[in-house]
Amino acid sequence: MASSGQPRIQWLGRWGFVLAATGSAVGLGNIWKFPYITGEYGGGAFVLVYLACILAVGVPVMMTEIAFGRRGRGSPIDAIRRVVNESGRSSAWSLIGWMAMLCGFMILSFYVVVAGWSFSYLWKMLTGGLAGSSVDDMAAVFSANNENPFILGGWSTLVTLLTMVIVGKGVQEGIEKNVSWMMPGLVLMLVLLIIFGVFSGGFGEAVRFLFSFNAESLSSEGMLAALGHAFFTLSLASGAILTYGSYLPKGASIGRTTVSVAIADTVVALMAGLAIFPVIFANGMNPGEGPGLIFMSLPLAFQAMPMGTLFGILFFLMLSMAALTSSISMVEATVSWLCDNKGMTRKSASWATGIVLWLISTLAMLSFNLGADWTLAGKNFFDWLDYLTSRWMMPLGGLGMVLLAGFVLKSETFRDELGLAPLPYALWLTMVRYVSPLGILVIFVDALGLYPVSFAVHWPVLLAILVIFALVGEALSPRLRQALRSR
Question: What is the pTM of this model?
């Protein structure tokens, strides 16, 4: 489907998209969260469940977003509106695009503050500002960093400026050119850190922690963690992947491209575990400390090890690049929309977006110091941005996307865009209509704290629920499609 106006610029190749999308997916959370929950919930058993969730929820939803982007050749708002208009449906469905674009911008508004921690710690590691003899000393450094609005605000401002400079250069010259060295550089640093870990004394324990197949540790809570992480790790329903998909060349296979991104994201997350946990175990530290693992325990461990300063610098440089590739993706939808709809040049759109982003992120930054007491219903501004996006907007946006693709649009639209053979297409359609919506609903209910995690969920029960859901859905699908299409 051709979009109006100028021909849309495209990635120079399929791997430009793969690197950019992987960079979007590999953020700060992946570096510590996925390795930690893998070890916590059964090692290899958890990884298998996670991969199943990626295939059942992550890959189908990501394929759908990319197909929307490439078919509509525009920002989330424009792309969805063009695709629904092609099927003769109401333009009101473009509200899903509005929510996705707003969601990505809101996430970035607090993410640049967190990304600022990485850049701050890189500087501290370079200048010797991370001296300390205990975790309490490191906690004091972390608190002092957050309590000073000029320091914390300065680093988040730097992240904002770097993001806008890269995005302002364009898709090929800015985003693609930079991720083409950032992502390989990140992987190279991970390899060096893994080699360092092999000789640290804790590598064997780290491998057992990550990959031992312990099915007894895989509780219903672990299954929910695998399902939730499979959805959130791929940057779904935040406008990033859909916008990146709008630059994908027509001849590129959406299926193979999506699987490549999912595999790369998972491999990098596991490599991060092999880089981090040998150092943690070699120093007798707790691997389950969350963000404190990166900003308190690891700096202390690096101090105690030979060549620790060098590898500490490599680690925080890697972390900073992971944060930057994610921030680039989250702002692209807004910049794309301004260029397409407001007649702005790429640079003007980037800097206009950056100014608004800086103002909102400053409020998020103040939540750690001067504005810590500015709360509503017990949450400060930073917490509200996180709560609204992760618990409401992303699950609802993902659900709306798959329902739109599975029940509302003409079947020819996605059959043509995905270019799949009949059997793979039927499998994708089944996933999008029944499996992915059910998975997203479970994520949504769990994110709101309504799911009884103590309830023992067994695979036969889950399978039976899924089969019943699919059969009832298929029986009702003609009426459901008619009801949704009439809106």
Answer: 0.90
Closest CA to 356 of 341, 370, 338, 372: 338
The whole-angstrom separation of Cα 289 and Cα 282 is 16
Partners of 376 in beta bridges: 379
Distance CA 16, CA 180 (A): 7
Give SS3 for 73.
coil
3-state secondary structure of 252: coil
Residue 73: CA count within 13 A, CB half-sphere: 15
- The count of C-alpha atoms lying within 13 angstroms of the C-alpha of 55, restricted to the half-sphere facing its C-beta, is 8
Task: Tell me if 465 sits within 8 A of 434, measured CB to CB.
Answer: no
Residues comprising the chain, all counted: 487
Phi, psi values for residue 376, rounded to 5°: -135, 120
Q: List C-alpha distances in Å: 14 to 64, 169, 438.
A: 17, 20, 31
Contact status, residue 117 vs residue 316, Cβ threshold 8 Å: no
Distance of alpha carbon 29 from alpha carbon 25, whole angstroms: 9
Beta bridge pairs of residue 213? 43
Residue 329 vs residues 238, 242, 301: alpha-carbon distances, Å: 9, 10, 32
For residue 43, the cross-strand partners are: 213
Residue with token string 């990033």: 240
- Whether the CB-CB separation of 428 and 418 falls below 8 Å is answered with yes
Helix pair 381-388, 95-127: axis angle to 10 deg: 130
- Hey, what amino acid is at 36? Y
User: Tokens 């394929």 correspond to what residue?
Assistant: 63
Residue that has been written with the tokens 């701050």 in this structure: 120
Q: Sign of dihedral through CA atoms 230, 26, 313, 320?
A: negative
241, 20 contact by CB (below 8 A): no
By three-state DSSP, how is residue 220 classified?
helix
pLDDT in tens, the chain (487 residues): 444 445 678 888 778 899 999 999 888 778 878 888 888 787 888 888 888 899 989 999 999 999 999 999 999 999 999 999 998 888 899 999 999 999 999 999 999 999 999 999 999 999 988 877 787 888 888 899 999 999 999 999 999 999 999 999 999 999 999 999 999 999 999 999 899 888 888 899 989 888 888 777 777 788 888 888 888 889 899 999 999 999 999 989 999 999 999 999 999 989 988 988 888 888 887 777 766 778 888 888 888 778 888 989 999 999 999 999 999 999 999 999 999 999 899 999 999 999 999 999 999 999 999 999 999 998 999 999 999 998 899 999 999 999 999 999 988 889 999 999 999 999 999 999 988 998 898 888 877 777 554 444 455 555 555 566 556 655 555 555 555 555 5
Encode 269-327 in three state secondary structure.
HHHHHHHHHHHHHHCCCCCCCCHHHHHHHHHHHHHCCCCHHHHHHHHHHHHHHHHHHHH
